[in-house]
Structures are given as structure tokens and as C-alpha cells.
Design goal:
Largest sheet of chain A: 3 strands, antiparallel
Order of helices and strands of chain A: HHEHHEEHH
Number of helices of chain A: 6
Oligomer: homodimer
Number of strands of chain A: 3
Strand order of the largest sheet of chain A: 1-3-2
CATH class of chain A: Mainly Alpha
Shape of chain A: globular
CATH architecture of chain A: Orthogonal Bundle
Helix content of chain A: 55-70%
Number of domains of chain A: 1
Distance between the termini of chain A: 37 Å
Chain lengths: ~150, ~150
Amino acid sequence: MAMPDREILSLESFLPYRLNRLADAVSRSFSDIYRQRHGLTRPEWRTLATLGQYGTMTATEVGAHSSMHKTKVSRAVAALERRRWLKRRADGQDRRVEHLELTPAGQRVYEELVPLAKTFEADLLGKLDMRKREAVLKGLAALEEAVLTK
Amino acid sequence: MAMPDREILSLESFLPYRLNRLADAVSRSFSDIYRQRHGLTRPEWRTLATLGQYGTMTATEVGAHSSMHKTKVSRAVAALERRRWLKRRADGQDRRVEHLELTPAGQRVYEELVPLAKTFEADLLGKLDMRKREAVLKGLAALEEAVLTK
DNA sequence: TTTCAATGGTTACAGATGAAACCAGTTTGG
DNA sequence: CCAAACTGGTTTCATCTGTAACCATTGAAA
């Protein structure tokens, strides 16, 4: 059985490359929204979004939940705090822990961004017919299960 | 018609976030392979992979093809050149242009990595049943069409 | 208790990144 | 011809990133 004398890889159809390129393009165009609007970075947006969704959380929880490295979270929290969009509350039991939550000003920013995010996503999925949309959601879920939970 | 008084966004089901997290995880685990094995960075791997696939190309073409910023390509090319895995040839007509190609040593590295890449992808897709795999491929293709070509 | 490992969070450092300025060299339009 | 606009590619600079070291606190073990 002969080996092919020069195996090549088609980068355009290689899964890691495709995922990256897609994530990059989508992320970039969505980030224009919160960046231009409020000068938020991506880690800041994620932190804001996580706290907006869950209310109060510790930095560690925010990181776990939004898949961010703890130094990213730390810096994002500091930045949001400087703008007074977030405040920290000490924990009664454990003085290492800080409970984070959005201030009313932070809430307002969050509430302004949520509909924009939803519209962005709807526009994107709106370009696909029903079958394709289902494939996207099913495919993502399948990959998440295979890749992330283990 | 009443507005909901506080709209929230579920980050875990938000498309840009999901794509990013997935791309990040997949990319990170694949990059372990070429990083540990040959100390390549991601832009270097992509450049190598593009030249391995297409033979000779200019830096601009590599960038267009692998979706990389031109400064990334420039630096990756310089790094690969330092290791003598790539060489530049001047263009006869246009002295701004450089034609890039892998040296035999670069070819060898590429040929060692290709099967690893294929195995990596096969392992990943192998965790999915046929239906899911089809959904992944169809979903990716649909998103690519909606997002990238326009 | 005292000690030692673990945990929440920040910081220092070294690399990687993109925007914009840059330097050839090339084309276009007067 | 010559100037201006453009193009391929590199470099500078300011910012962002992850690793690892760090500080403070807590919990468990002895």
C-alpha cells in the first residue's frame, strides 16, 4: 500500500481554522457596537454582560462563566469600577472574596446594549433559511459538548 | 403593549460568544501540537500551512488567504526565514514583491504537521455521530457564507 | 496553636497585537 | 516627462495578553 508522496492540508476546510476565522469576523463586527458606543473592550463587555445577566458574582465566578482568564477579569473589573459601572462588596465570611455588581449606571449601559446584541444576532441568523439556522445551532451545540465539557 | 422591564441576554446562548469560546478552545488545544513540537506561533503555523498548500505566494496573498493582518504575516515570514524554513525570491517585474516558498527543511516540518492536523480534526469530529457532524459542516458553511463573503 | 497547602485576587514581566506611519517602488494623469 | 496616488512590505508605538510570581486570607493537618 503506497503512501501519497506529499500530503497536503486544505486550510480552508480545516476545522480549527474555519472556527477561528468565523469567530474573529463575527466578534470583530459585534465589538464595533460596544466599542464605538461605550469604549468597552471585549473583556469589559463580557464582564458587564455576565453581571447584567446574573446580578452579583465574584471575579472567579465571572471568569468561569465567561471563559476568561483571571487576569483579564481582574483588569476588566478594575476598568469598569473606574468608570463607576460596577462596585465591589466585601464578603462577611471570607475577606478574600469580593462580590461584584453593576451600579445603576452600569445597568443602564447593559440595558442599552442588550437589544443591540439581540438585533445583531437576529440579523446574522436572519440571513440563513430555517434549515441552515437549525444546522448552525445543532452544530454549535454538538461541538460544545465534544470540546468544552470534558 | 408593555415592554419587559428588564431585558437580559443569555451570554451562553449568544452566537458571538459561543463561537469565540469554541474557537478559542479548539485553537488552543491544536496549537499545543505545533507549539510544543516546533515552537511555532499561530501566525507562523498558518503561514507555513498556506505555503505548504499553495507552493509559492507573496506575503499579501498569504495574508488574504489565511485571514491574517499584514503585520502578522510580515513577522511570521521573518521568523520562518530566520529558521531557514522559508525563503524569499525577488520578482522580475516588480521589485516590491517577494515570492515566498518553503525550503526543504520547511517542507519537512509541514509534512510532519499535516498528519497531526488531520488526526486532530478527525478525533474531534469522531466524537460526533454522523448527524451531528453533518450539522457542524453545514452550519459552518452557512455562517461562512453569511459572514465572510459580502 | 503553628504550619503548610490552597484559594481569591492583583501585579510584573515578556511577548503578541493592530493602527498608523513609513519606505521603497510602480502606476496614472496631466 | 513629472507629480500624485497607490501598492507591497516593514517598523514604531501603545495596548493587550498570559505566565508566573506575588500578597492576603482561609482551611486542614499535626
